[in-house]
């Protein structure tokens, strides 16, 4: 296993769920963290908690990944000790709605496309050139089983995750001949705020998604991300499709009672 101690790891969507769990596992391993999210209060609390527990070196960036100008400005103003980013974890993403395509919300579509695809592209475009010039780096994109298998009423969300899959594959091809690695980690059902966000804050409906089965936890996914990043430099884990035992496809689940 390769140490990530003192490596600079940037995580988008870091204030909750998979992003927060990923920040914890890298902080514990001694990495320097750049934590990106929209919710400043939760970012600050996470940074404070990690600093107290692990004496972590942390820089926070409050911004919306849909805002390219803000991203470019924030990255340009990074303190020098955080500027040479070693690992980019494109975790920020969301699903909105669960409607038939012909009944879908334009606003929901735009939010998913702008966050899941364009936000990922903005960070990748801004950070990867530095990785290439320094001769080291790793990009981890959070995909989904939805990028492999379309499910009813998932239409545009599934399309955005299929795009993440294609972008990851294309980026790796474009980086051939450099030491920079690219990984796509594609989970099935994970119990996070995902379903509450999908249903616009309907907690009861969101909780029903996980009833009767044991989904993945954010820590499960963070553990896989950490494994991929800490392999020997000549090893590239290109893609990981992971699901709970109670799930066998995007639509097949074992629910008990």
Task: Describe it.
This protein is α/β, with parallel strands linked by helices and 257 residues long. It has one domain (8-187, 216-242): NAD(P)-binding Rossmann-like Domain (Rossmann fold, 3-Layer(aba) Sandwich), CATH 3.40.50.720. 42% of the residues lie in helices and 14% in strands. The chain contains 8 helices and 7 strands, in the order E-H-E-H-E-H-E-H-E-H-E-H-H-H-E. It has helices at residues 17-28, 40-54, 68-76, 106-134, 155-174, 194-198, 203-208, 218-229, and strands spanning 8-12, 32-37, 58-62, 87-90, 138-142, 181-187, 239-242. The protein has a 7-stranded parallel sheet with strand order 3-2-1-4-5-6-7, with helices on both faces. The chain starts with 7 loop residues before the first strand and ends in a 15-residue tail after the last strand.
Sequence of strands across the biggest β-sheet? 3-2-1-4-5-6-7
Uncertain segments are none
Q: Largest sheet, described in full?
A: 7 strands, parallel
CATH architecture descriptor text: 3-Layer(aba) Sandwich
**Structural shape:** globular
Series of H and E elements: EHEHEHEHEHEHHHE
Organism: Chroococcidiopsis thermalis (strain PCC 7203)
Protein name: Short-chain dehydrogenase/reductase SDR
GO molecular function: serine 3-dehydrogenase activity
Family: Belongs to the short-chain dehydrogenases/reductases (SDR) family.
């Amino acid at each position: 296993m390769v140490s990530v101690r003192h490596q600079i790891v940037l995580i988008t969507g870091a204030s909750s769920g998979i992003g927060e769990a990923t920040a914890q596992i890298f902080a514990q391993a001694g990495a320097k963290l750049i934590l990106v999210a929209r919710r400043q209060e939760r970012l600050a609390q996470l940074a404070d908690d990690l600093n107290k527990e692990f004496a972590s070196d942390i820089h926070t960036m409050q911004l919306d990944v849909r805002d390219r100008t803000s991203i470019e400005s924030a990255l340009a103003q990074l303190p020098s000790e955080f500027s040479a980013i070693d690992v980019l974890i494109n975790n920020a993403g969301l699903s909105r709605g669960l409607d038939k395509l012909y009944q879908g919300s334009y606003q929901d579509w735009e939010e998913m496309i702008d966050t899941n695809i364009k936000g990922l592209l903005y960070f990748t475009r801004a950070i990867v050139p530095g990785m290439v010039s320094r001769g080291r780096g790793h990009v981890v994109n959070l995909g989904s089983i939805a990028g492999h298998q379309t499910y009813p009423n998932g239409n545009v969300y599934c399309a955005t995750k299929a795009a993440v899959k294609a972008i990851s594959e294309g980026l790796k091809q474009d980086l051939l001949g450099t030491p920079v690695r690219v990984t796509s980690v594609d989970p099935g059902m994970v119990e996070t705020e995902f379903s509450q966000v999908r249903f616009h804050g309907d907690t009861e409906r969101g909780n029903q998604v996980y009833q009767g089965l044991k989904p993945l936890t954010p820590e499960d996914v963070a553990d896989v991300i950490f494994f991929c990043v800490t392999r020997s430099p000549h090893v590239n884990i290109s893609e990981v499709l992971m699901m709970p035992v109670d799930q066998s496809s995007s639509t097949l689940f074992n629910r008990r009672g």
